[in-house]
Structures
1.
Amino acid sequence: MIDINLLKEASKKVLNNSYSPYSGIKVAAAVLTKNGNVYTGVNVENSSYALTSCAEKNAIINSIIHGEKDFLAMAVYTDSHLVKSPCGSCRQFIFEFSKDLQIYFYGPDYYNEFNIKELFPEGFSL
């Protein structure tokens, strides 16, 4: 069983580590692997916007660094009233590693659950 509160709290715990001086929007993510481990990531912005790295992507990369790439669920936590789902780039990145990932998205006044297939129904991969 997936403890979504554990994922929410893990992402919330690292939210202030976000480096977001350009947008002012903090985003954090936590991914749960099939081995039961949780890996986190935050958004890291750059003045060359194309070099910005999203929290979802960084959480997945963090898990891969630790040798894990089989995921059960992801929580995303933001302080923004505007951001309500992973961006298009993150949708593709998530889909690359999990064609059926459940995503729990938390904002200051917002909560929703998605499956990556709902967000990215025509994703592509190997």
2.
Amino acid sequence: MTKMIFVNLPVKELQASVKFYEALGMKNNPQFSDDSAACMVWSDTIYIMLLTHDRWRTFTTRPIPSADSSEVMLALSCDDREMVDRLNELSEQHGGTADINPKQDLGFMYNRNVADLDGHVWEMFWMDPSAMQTS
């Protein structure tokens, strides 16, 4: 079986968050979505589960982090530098926060960090595959 990842995120306003992630190019998978959760597809193996706060609380009693804190930074690879920049711009145009950390350009790797509507941090990055060392 192919390894997959489902990232679960608590969100205040489910439909607003769905629109935000759709603006970044993700598709909603209705098979795993209802009025308390939405499954947003980044790739064949990466899924972002947006969960209302009530739904989130069925999984854990731990407190939901506030929008101005960082519980984790999630990194998503992009096809090129232009895609990194485009996602950064789209994030801000659709209610997120662009460049929450300084842009990083190391030549072989380029990244920009955005926050979604609830403050979840995403590192959009591109890396030159030819610069990666093989063992």
